[in-house]
Amino acid sequence: MVVSRKQELPIINIYIKGTRLKQKDQFKYLGSLISSDGRNNSEVASRIAQAKTNFQKMKTVLTNKNISIRTRRRALECYIEPILMYGCEAWTISKQTQKKLEATEMWFLRRMLRISWTAKKTNDTVLEEAHTTRLLISKIRKRQATFFGHVMRREKLENLVTTGMLEGKRSRGKQREKLIEGLTDWLKAGKSLEAIEATKDRKKWRTMIANAVKQGT
């Protein structure tokens, strides 16, 4: 695989004992889908599909009105959300990705409450009936921030990959959002360098994460 921003990927020829290895656009590694464009759109879409499939398998429990909505939400958190959020520590969450994840969160709640798409109930009304608020994005960001702090404090290869600079010129157009930029904005940490510096103090970093979760952003 070649990971590149170019629309036309370079062709590579690697041979082992005279046999050319097949070049792939995507492949699954440790359960996560890696794409040649370096984005995680396909992986997020795959996770959403898998979570919805498993929701349907547990439909008799999750949509059972004889069970309280709080208990059913606990079941959702235990059995469905881990499937959806697997590997989310490495996701770059764009506005489009965030909308898809938030839509998935509401998809779960509407089906748990057995609300028809023709009912025309707003998301706020659905959240009120489910006795909850939007939590999914905060959960993902919390996991990302916790993992990021661990990586930064270790100062190993993962640290270098995350913070290192590449030689060359910036490509034209809007630059892709980086993981650290999304986290810095969520934590309201000022600049990326300030966030990286804050990870060195474990107690301070945990406090920043807790404050961001409380704000529900």
Descriptive key words:
mainly alpha; single chain; 217 residues; two-stranded antiparallel ribbon; two-stranded antiparallel sheet
**Structure class:** mainly alpha
Contiguous uncertain segments of 5+ residues? none
Number of helical stretches of at least 4 residues = 11
Tell me the overall shape.
globular
Largest sheet: 2 strands, antiparallel
Biggest β-sheet: strands ordered side by side in the sheet: 1-2
Beta content comes to 5-15%
Organism: Plakobranchus ocellatus
Keywords: Endonuclease, Hydrolase, Nuclease
Protein name: Endonuclease-reverse transcriptase
GO molecular function, one term: endonuclease activity
Layout of helices and strands:
Layout: E1 15-16, E2 19-20, E3 26-29, E4 32-35, H1 41-57, H2 59-62, H3 69-79, H4 81-84, H5 95-112, H6 123-129, H7 136-154, H8 157-163, H9 179-187, H10 192-198, H11 202-215
Antiparallel strand pairs: 1-2, 3-4
